[in-house]
Amino acid sequence: MKRVSALLACALIGIVVGADDRAWAETLAGAKRTLTPEAIGKAIELYLEKEWASVIKDVQVTVLDPAEPITLPASTADWRVVPVRPEERMGRRHFQVAVTVNGKPWKTIDVAADVVAMVDAIALNRFVKPDEIIEEADLKTVRVRVFQLNHAYLVDAGQVIGRSAARPLPMDTPIRAAFLKAPLVIKKGERVLIEARRGGLAVHAYGVTKSSGQVGQTITVANSDSGKELRAKVVAPGLVQVEF
Fold first, then answer.
1. What SS3 class is residue 68?
2. What are the chain's domains?
3. Could you count the other beta carbons within 10 Å of the beta carbon of residue 44?
4. Going by C-beta distance under 8 Å and a sequence separation of 6 or more, which residues neighbour residue 90?
5. pLDDT of residue 22
6. pLDDT 10s digits, 27-54
7. Which residues of the chain have pLDDT under 70?
8. Tens digits of residue pLDDT in 106-133
9. How far does Cα 106 stand from its chain's mean position?
10. Is 189 exposed, middle or buried (0-12, 13-18, 19+ CB in 10 A)?
11. Which side of the chain, N or C, has fewer Cβ within a 10 Å radius?
12. Do residues 66 and 126 lie in contact, with contact meaning Cβ atoms separated by under 8 Å?
């Protein structure tokens, strides 16, 4: 009590307070702490980054409500995001933050926040024409905002390498699965080996394709000797099979 009275007296008569006394006075003034919207947003970001670690690269959270800092008791306080029902959408979301004081529950805060999520999507570093096969050297990553967890962008280069473009793909375009298709291994007008098998017997002839095809597709091939057109299954580059 004497120390408090002395400080008050010093303040009233304008005497300069020493550094040690100033620090002691600031400790008294800071007896209560505050939980700011920024701190709440950071806690939600850490929570979502952990929940979405396998698919999302970066999360940004802006707290809309509460808009003002919340005063905490003059004790040891901690806070955490209460697990919520999983949601795939971004934008306006609602969360709950549980605050504990001295290890005991103190208050649960309802939070409204705007959630922005980003992924590193696979993109092209050059223009790719339709049916052109995409190689590893053609790829790079671009940071893209997504509006739901189950987004359409491809983030694994292994899903793109060796595929061909289903449409013209400009440089820097984030790639979706719908933009790709299995590569054409045989093209129209190509000379191929025609193989006919039955049991252990195999007969071979050469022909010219009338259309292009992917592995597993059936195309028309004209026998080079007879000119007869056959329906054959594409097996590999330069090889088709017919049944008899």
1. coil
2. 33-117 (no CATH), 121-143+153-181 (3.90.1210.10), 191-243 (2.30.30.760)
3. 21
4. 115, 116, 117, 146, 147, 148, 149
5. 38
6. 334 445 889 999 999 999 999 998 888 7
7. 1-32, 86
8. 999 999 999 999 999 999 999 999 989 9
9. 36
10. exposed
11. N
12. no
Residue 215 token pair: 């592995």
Task: Kindly give the pairing relationship between strand 180-181 and strand 218-223.
Answer: unpaired
Strands 229-236 vs 139-146: parallel, antiparallel or unpaired:
unpaired
Query: What count of Cα atoms within 13 Å lies in the side-chain half-sphere of residue 210?
Result: 14
Half-sphere exposure of 148 (CA within 13 A, CB side): 6
- What is the separation, in whole angstroms, between the first and last Cα of the chain? 108
The 3 state secondary structure assigned to 145-205 is EECECCCCECCCHHHCCCCEECCCECCCCECEHHHEECCCCECCCCEEEEEEEECCEEEEE
What is the distance between the alpha carbons of residues 50 and 66, in angstroms, rounded to a whole number? Answer: 23
Which tokens belong to 73? Answer: 């008791």
Q: Tell me which amino acid residue 179 is.
A: F
**Per-residue model confidence (pLDDT) at position 32:** 53
- Residue 188 in tokens: 């129209």
Residue 111 CA, distance from chain mean position: 24
